[in-house]
């Protein structure tokens, strides 16, 4: 029997993992996916009988930050995920093979697991009408490679804001005609794990959810898993009590900043940004940007690169007077919710008003 044909339970026993440790692992997974304790036995039964699914990871117009984030996952760890939970059959950065051997491994995995493999994509890609030479792998355009891989995929996971919404490559003036995965994949289910980079445990959590239940998790309006993107950064932030009291840092080194006051006036996009950063953090739960004293940039939201300056309070629309900002601190969550709604409306309006710029015009400006 091949390694892929053995169940996860059999592989765990082969590696000396006790039943108690396995159940503790299932309890951690239930907590990760915001499931009640009663779901632990069901997760254990599903995982114990599950076979390792084939995973093909395609990297297009990206910076490798999403892979860097994945390698820092701690529940499960990247080693547990690749060696015990899934069969990662193709990944530019993590695979040992290169060149012709790497592409042959991808072709073989696609043929042997047709209709069953999970396709993961990070990075945006030039659209169907763009110059295919803008981004290629082994002489094949990103668009052609994605369309070929999608045909035999059971589902598609777009990892990172570039794959989910276009990200930096798709920012104005978008010289390569970059589009998101969801813009071109219409006949297969797509889940977006946005973030620049995404939280590592969200990536692995989606994979384990698929392995456990054989389907993708419940999604929000942007096709993001609700378990991780169901609440705003603002609502989960430990600095929220200072916001409710009207206590804001005015500069990065004033007394308020040193006391941990709210970073709202320093451009924090937390009220209009949805992600699990505040609860999951990075580096085994050590910290996250706001805890390090930096405002949220809104990197898990569409068009965040085009939403204006990172350090100006764009979470408060330009048309809102300063008195309204002060009222937000006094009134707390209710006003904050209104401001967040107006912020999203403004982002959409700004995106609609943007004028395209040609590459020639861009070069003239440079």
Word description of this protein:
The protein is an alpha/beta fold. A hairpin with a 2-residue loop joins strand 5 (136-137) and strand 6. It has helices spanning 8-14, 19-32, 40-49, 65-70, 78-85, 99-112, 142-151, 161-165, 181-184, 200-213, 226-229, 233-236, 240-244, 255-258, 277-280, 322-331, 333-353, 359-365; strands at 54-59, 87-90, 117-122, 125-126, 136-137, 140-141, 153-159, 178-179, 190-193. It has 18 helices and 9 strands. Helices cover 41% and strands 10% of the residues. Mean pLDDT is 81; it is low at 315-322 and 353-359. The strands form 3 sheets. Strands 2-1-3-7-9 form a 5-stranded parallel β-sheet, with helices on both faces.
Show the helix and strand layout.
Elements: H1 8-14, H2 19-32, H3 40-49, E1 54-59, H4 65-70, H5 78-85, E2 87-90, H6 99-112, E3 117-122, E4 125-126, E5 136-137, E6 140-141, H7 142-151, E7 153-159, H8 161-165, E8 178-179, H9 181-184, E9 190-193, H10 200-213, H11 226-229, H12 233-236, H13 240-244, H14 255-258, H15 277-280, H16 322-331, H17 333-353, H18 359-365
Parallel strand pairs: 1-2, 1-3, 3-7, 7-9
Antiparallel strand pairs: 4-8, 5-6
Helix pairs in contact: 2-3, 16-17
């Amino acid at each position: 029997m091949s390694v892929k044909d053995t169940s996860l339970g059999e592989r765990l026993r082969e590696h000396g993992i006790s039943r108690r440790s396995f159940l503790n692992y299932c309890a951690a997974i239930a907590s990760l996916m915001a499931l009640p304790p009663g779901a632990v036995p069901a997760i254990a039964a599903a995982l114990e009988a599950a076979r390792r699914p084939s995973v093909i990871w395609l990297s297009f117009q990206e910076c490798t930050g999403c892979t860097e984030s994945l390698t820092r996952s701690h529940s499960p760890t990247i080693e547990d995920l690749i060696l015990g939970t899934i069969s990662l059959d193709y990944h530019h950065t993590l695979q040992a093979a290169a060149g012709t051997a790497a592409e042959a491994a991808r072709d073989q995995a696609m043929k042997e697991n047709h209709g069953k493999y999970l396709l993961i994509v990070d990075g945006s890609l030039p659209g169907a009408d763009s110059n295919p030479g803008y981004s290629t792998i082994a002489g094949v355009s990103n668009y052609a490679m994605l369309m070929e891989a999608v045909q035999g995929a059971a589902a598609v996971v777009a990892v990172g804001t570039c794959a989910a919404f276009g990200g930096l490559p798709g920012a104005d003036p978008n010289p390569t005609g970059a589009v998101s995965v969801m813009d071109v994949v219409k006949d297969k289910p797509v889940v977006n794990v946005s973030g620049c980079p995404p939280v590592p445990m969200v990536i692995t959590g989606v994979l384990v959810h698929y392995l456990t239940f054989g389907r993708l998790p419940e999604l929000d309006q942007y096709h993001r898993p609700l378990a991780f993107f169901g609440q705003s950064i603002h609502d989960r932030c430990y600095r929220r009590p200072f916001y409710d009291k009207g206590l804001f840092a005015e500069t990065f080194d004033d007394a308020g900043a040193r006391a941990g006051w709210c970073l709202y006036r320093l451009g924090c996009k937390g009220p209009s940004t949805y992600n699990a950063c505040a609860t999951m953090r990075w580096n085994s739960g050590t910290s996250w940007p706001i805890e390090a004293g930096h405002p949220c940039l809104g990197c898990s939201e569409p068009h965040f690169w085009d939403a204006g300056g990172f350090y100006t309070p764009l979470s408060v629309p330009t048309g809102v007077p300063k008195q309204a900002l002060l009222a937000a601190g006094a009134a707390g969550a209710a006003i904050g919710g209104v401001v967040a709604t107006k912020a999203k409306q403004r982002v959409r309006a700004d995106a609609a008003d943007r004028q395209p710029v040609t590459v020639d015009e861009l070069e003239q400006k440079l």
